[in-house]
User: Fold Pentatricopeptide repeat-containing protein at2g02980-like protein from Trifolium pratense.
Amino acid sequence: MARGYARSNDPLRAIILFCRVLWSDLVPDDYTFSSLLKACSKVKALEEGKQLHCFALKLGVSDNIYVVPTLINMYTSCGEIDDARRVFDKIDEPCVVAYNAIITSLARNNQPNEALALFRELQESGLKPTDVTMLVALSSCAMLGSLDLGRWIHEYVKKYGFDRYVKVNTALIDMYAKCGSLDDAVNVFRGMPKRDTQTWSTIIIAYATHGDGFQAISMLKEMKKEKVQPDEITFLGILYACSHNGLVEEGFEYFHSMTNEYGIVPSIKHYGCMVDLLGRAGRLDEAYKFIDELPIKPTPILWRTLLSACSSHGNVEMGKQVMERISELDDSHGGDYVILSNLCARYGKWDDVNHLRKMMIDKGAVKIPGCSSIEVNNVVHEFFAGDGIHSISTTLHRALDELIKELKLAGYVADTSLVFHPDMEDEDKEIILRYHSEKIAITFGLLNTPPGTTIRVVKNLRVCGDCHNAAKFISLVFGRQIILRDVQRFHHFKDGKCSCELSAASFVWKDQPVNHCMQPRRRKEVRQDSELQKIVEELKVNPESKVGFTVNQDILFYKGRLVLSPNSPTIPLLLKEFHETPMGGHSGFLRTYRRLAANLYWPGMQKRIRDFVRACDTCQRQKYAATVPGGLLQPLSILNAIWEDLSLDFITGLPRSKGFEAVLVVDRLSKYSHFLLLKHPYTAKSVAELFVKEIVRLHGVPISIISDRDPLFVSHFWMELFKLQGTQLNMSSAYDLETDGQTEVTNRCLESYLRCFASEQPKTWSHWIPWAEFWYNSTFHVSIGKTPFEVVYGRQPPNIIRFLSNEKKVAAVAMELSERDEALTQLKAHSLRAQQQMKKQQSVAKRINPKLAAWFYGPFKIIEKLGEVAYKLQLPAHSRIHPVFHVSLLKKAIGDYAVQGDLPKELEIQPVEDFYPEKVVRSRIINQGGVSTPLSLIQWKNKSIEDATWEDSVFIRGQFPEFNLEDKIFTKEGGIDRNLTEEVGLDVNYDKPKIWRVYKRKRMEGAELAHA
Assistant:
């Protein structure tokens, strides 16, 4: 009878019944205490539960296998977890049931670390865990985001056969999903022979929280096909998916079908998803009305959801209304004041900010401190917001400072409007933002995980907007994927983007081509520019007052393009990005302007770009002088369709690069070109095979081909091959610009491009061919009025976000990008001599290949004018050439130059240097002709590490007998055989803590170098 009452809706009747039993002098047994304690747990009757505990002690049954779990559960349900732990600790030899009870209690009270510690203790005691133990252990891993431990438990589950339980597999799916490994969750799901409703709901929620709402909806359809009935949890996941993917209409359809088709009564969580759905879509008035018309009393959580939406969409007035509704229900939540305060501060309403701050103090409202955890080497490390200099290690503190510096170089700007201190200076606000728990945890991950490893962080609150912005820059600068889990969803950061940008239409920048990471900076710059701010204010009053201008959330646009202040510090970075990078290709003014003007606008834009391009040091050196060709024009016939009429030519005389020595250029009507690599000796057959593989495969067989009179093209094999395909070989005079001019111009463009990026590393030119092809085809062409890319594909070419030249990259960054930026750094050094002289990497005896050599060198100061057409220049003292030049060989240097230029190596007298080994950086053994040969990487005296060379160890011992190889070995853990400055830049300081990653390797004989 007591058990029945305990399970009923009126469990107190079990207590009343027990009192009658005591009056009748009957002695209760073990089962009686178990049922009564369950009744106390259900109604949280702590005092009655304590009396039962005392009675059980008196009768000597308090450590009974049935009484102990219910005692622990009773104390836990009443919020007395310490008492529950004391009950467990007093047991001399606890059984697995007692362990399960206390582990479950700890997990339910958000103490997953303690729960997992007892799980390990259970294993060490020799007791065998049960399926309940596995469920709770996996749940604890999920709460912590402890993926490594979760994987270990998964192996334990498979080893001891717990994977036969559907609930254990479901817990595995939940664990993997909450630890950020969606692929593992899907693999467990697909491997299950049997799935129930809870399993389907779990995988649907997993997809939804990871931002893949469409897949979540697809899983619901698959669930219905398998005749599995969805429940309220299933629809909660579906509504969540619709909310975070902007599927408003679909969300309402599922919301109504939940009740109409399945008879499920919506709970407060379902209503919350609908408010979030409308709020994220910007339909704030509908969301407000939806809450007001609910059939149940709205909770503060619903209004807080709408308050967050008001903050996202910048609606201050509605935010104030919502705050009033929240205060009527609960005015003690500090987060509400912070959200509204930040919203008011964003729009300069400082009186409201001060009023909210005073209200927060008066009511004693306190914001829950942010906490972020990260698992490293099976240990979970927790960091709290405000863990500053005195709370974190010196190494981590310095690494965090250096991290912020790197992010600022990449364009990161701290959003100080998020700091709830209106009387504080921006510098102090930046320090507060710097020590947010997310940033500390991510920095700790960078320091303590191998390169390329995904960083997984768990946050107890919603991710801070500034930390969200910073995480995108970190993923871009350091080439890491970051998975950050907050209370709402997962954020997958990769290559400077977050998964939440792709799943919801909640960002004003979603459809804009400019990265929305810079949104706080743009707002600040517009506010500081009086002219632009005046335009914004006029547009707010009358949207039609300024033709072409529009405003969206205080962001100014001109004809759909983002408007920048002409004083913006971002403009110099943009000019470098769109002109000096491989994507910009050192194009001329018009093409550079077209690239920038596709997305951006600022007053005086054309003049700023023209001056920048004219002053580009690389362009002045590498570009040829354009002259009008002589002779009469003999144009080719008018073309009908793209890729029907092609022109081909060869660029030869290039240095060998990965075995390639020539380039085959293919283009015509659309101006679209393919740059195909060839190796000598090439034949008609090899060229034809390459042509079919790379051109015919993509565009079909052409009708005609224009080429020069190269014997390669007139060979019988080539003519017969294309005759079978209906192709006419239309011959033209080689190098005749009026018949085959288009291809010759393309050749010159490609050669100029390669000179700009490979003149100092001529044997790397083949690395630049893919970038050259993209640059050429995505560049504006006057003759067609658009880019070849747009002609062929019917859309604008995509923008490529590069790794900025001043970013220090880790080994996980793609090798092609690393090599590209390394060479780009050398090119930019010419215009930065006043600040830094780059080390020379080319051998003194190595001549720059003439094909890729610069057209001009310098700048050099004019000493004297000799006659009408000659000038004497101030050449370097070690020059081997005469200092007097004809005017035709000179051109004016544009821009500011504080340091004179250098001549190429072959024109300089090279001093004889004495080489003496200073230390051995690392050692290795190679196989040469079946013989093992020891090599040492020698750093030479008075030379930097980047000049270190591999030498035969036996030769070094013989040549320098007094130099002890063993004593000179530079011993540091980790490292691989690579350029030492590739990750840490030119300033190699091993005593200074750095946040760059270390390659962890098993220690070999000899020494290894660590980039740390």
